[in-house]
Amino acid sequence: MALTGFFLIIYLIVHALLNALIFYNDDGKIFNEGASFMLHNYFIRFLEIGLFAVFILHIIQGLLLWQQNKAARKIKYEKSNYPREIKWYSRYMGWLGTFLLLFLVMHLAQFWAQTKNELYFNGPEIDLYQQMKGIFTNPIWFTLYMIGLASLLFHLLQGFQSAFQTFGINNRRWIYIIKGVGVFYSVAICLLFASMPLAFMVGWLQ
Ligand code: HEM
């Protein structure tokens, strides 16, 4: 989980930075050029297969882990005495992951499937900037994106730290540094993503 998680952590940085091109506020010209370059680049198409494989592996690993944890605790404790240091979201990684999966299905249908329809099936030409605008100015989609991104925040807060622990980095001083980097990364990436629907919704981007 840790290895696939790391790959996804890096992917999210690239994804968020590329999307941030919308903030040039040039009607999406630069953003659409960047997206079009990625779309027509064979190397990126090849990487995308790897990305999907990693996503699927990460999800399967997560589901197996969730099931194992449940099986290990067949009889529920009468009263759950979790130590205070264990955050609520650590116990709900499975649910957060499930929300994220639903978010991802919705997200891929709204964007990825559209560009692939154009590329492989001669579908209508798609202006991703206008597509974003249409989706993010709709209150229902806007709310679902915000819920998805909140799930991502807690999922990352927990996942980032456990990844390092899995690799055996649990020395006291390093733990503090890693916790800090993890919190910074998780908050920064989710805020950057969330600023995109928000910018369209409140009309900063037209
Ligand atoms: C508001 C935030 C987000 C925006 C505006 C956004 C935008 C986009 C766009 C425009 C595409 C289509 C790219 C193309 O097909 O050429 C895309 C694809 C994709 N997005 Fe997002 N995205 C956001 C958040 C996320 C999050 C949080 C995740 C993961 C948890 C994610 C995962 C993906 C994946 C896996 C793809 C398909 C692979 C790819 O084309 O890169 N996105 N996104």
Describe the protein.
This protein has one domain. It contains eight helices and no strands. The chain has helices at residues 2-19, 29-39, 42-72, 88-91, 93-121, 128-136, 139-166, 172-201. The protein is globular. The protein binds protoporphyrin IX containing FE.
N-to-C CA distance:
40 Å
- The share of residues in helices is over 70%
Gyration radius, rounded: 19 Å
Largest beta sheet, briefly? none
Q: Which kinds of small molecule does this entry bind, naming each only once?
A: protoporphyrin IX containing FE
**Beta content:** under 5%
**Low-pLDDT residue spans:** none
Task: Quickly count the domains.
Answer: 1
* Helix-strand string: HHHHHHHH
Count the strands? 0
- Class inferred from helices and paired strands: mainly alpha
Number of helices: 8
Write down the overall mean pLDDT: 88
Shape: globular
